[in-house]
Amino acid sequence: xxxxxxxxxxxxxxxxxxxxxxxxxxxxxxxxxxxxxxxxxxxxxxxxxxxxxxxxxxxxxxxxxxxxxxxxxxxxxxxxxxxxxxxxxxxxxxxxxxxxxxxxxxxxxxxxxxxxxxxxxxxxxxxxxxxxxxxxxxxxxxxxxxxxxxxxxxxxxxxxxxxxxxxxxxxxxxxxxxxxxxxxxxxxxxxxxxxxxxxxxxxxxxxxxxxxxxxxxxxxxxx
Length: 223
Hints:
Elements: H1 8-20, E1 25-28, H2 43-61, H3 63-68, H4 70-84, H5 87-95, H6 104-122, E2 134-142, E3 149-156, E4 163-172, E5 175-183, E6 186-187, H7 188-202, H8 205-214
Parallel strand pairs: 1-2
Antiparallel strand pairs: 2-3, 3-4, 4-5, 5-6
């Protein structure tokens, strides 16, 4: 079955979700004990809470500044994205079979090019993001094989159906980092794994990264 692709609003929501790692939460369910994780039980959900509060407050307070100074907005987005998102690990998942045996340098080239391409195209969507949305963390459960945890949440909208957002996180050096976000069941990793499979069959990782940098290729939102 062909995987669904993200439309533009959904991808913009993904970027907001990946950056925010949630929003002020109404309630946190009892968390399942993470498998093979050195951090305290439920700490991934706590990270969602603490980070999202800080970021949402910043977006609300500095919205005018960010609109008038795109460079400052980019610096803010990049800093928070790097803080929360395990970019290189996610890039290896996106590369899939094409990343087997790839050097760390090539993976980083691809990771940086993909992230920068996405932020350049969709980063300003954060300025229109509704910071009044409420988000409920429903549960935290262990991923199979001790790969980390899944923090399941819902974005609650006035007059609209809740939007399910799941964060897949792993513990890196004692800190939880997001490596995939699933919005309405659509995975960031799988979406771009599907997109880049064909180009990576024809070109090297470094060449695909260079095409992203040069604007010859765009991270496709699906529509």
